[in-house]
Design goal:
Elements: E1 4-7, E2 10-12, E3 18-24, E4 33-39, E5 46-52, E6 57-59, E7 67-71, E8 77-82, E9 91-99, E10 102-105, E11 109-113
Parallel strand pairs: 2-11
Antiparallel strand pairs: 1-3, 3-8, 4-5, 4-9, 5-6, 7-8, 9-10, 9-11
């Protein structure tokens, strides 16, 4: 099992930047895949960015070149750096971890892009 706690959400103006953090209760080296998903009102939850333990990353087309996923040296926190944000990036952002066949979710953090 793993517990995930997100932080860093808030209100940001279009074109601005924001960094989300996801603190895991165990080293992420023991987690097969970690990443970020988001869900806007009335929409399904969608993938934003993920990485696997072998270093492979995957980004949604809508965020490529603007968002970047990374982890800290202590291997317990995953970040999502969001640059050049757009109003359509407004959503609740969720941290996700996959261990074997099970998936775990954080409680979510709201990101609102508005002037």
């Amino acid at each position: 099992q793993v517990q995930l706690v997100e932080s860093g959400g808030g209100l940001v103006q279009p074109g601005g930047s924001l960094r989300l953090s996801c603190a895991a209760s165990r080293t992420i080296l023991t987690i097969n895949r970690m990443g970020w998903y988001r869900q806007a009102p009335g929409n399904k939850r969608e993938l934003v960015a993920t990485f696997t333990t072998n270093g492979r990353t995957n980004y949604a087309d809508s965020v490529k070149g603007r968002f970047s996923i990374s982890r800290d040296n202590a291997e317990t926190t995953v970040y999502l750096q969001m640059n050049s944000v757009k109003p359509e990036d407004t959503a609740v952002y969720y941290c996700n971890a996959a261990i074997g066949w099970r998936e775990y979710w954080g409680q979510g953090t709201q990101v609102t892009v508005s002037s």
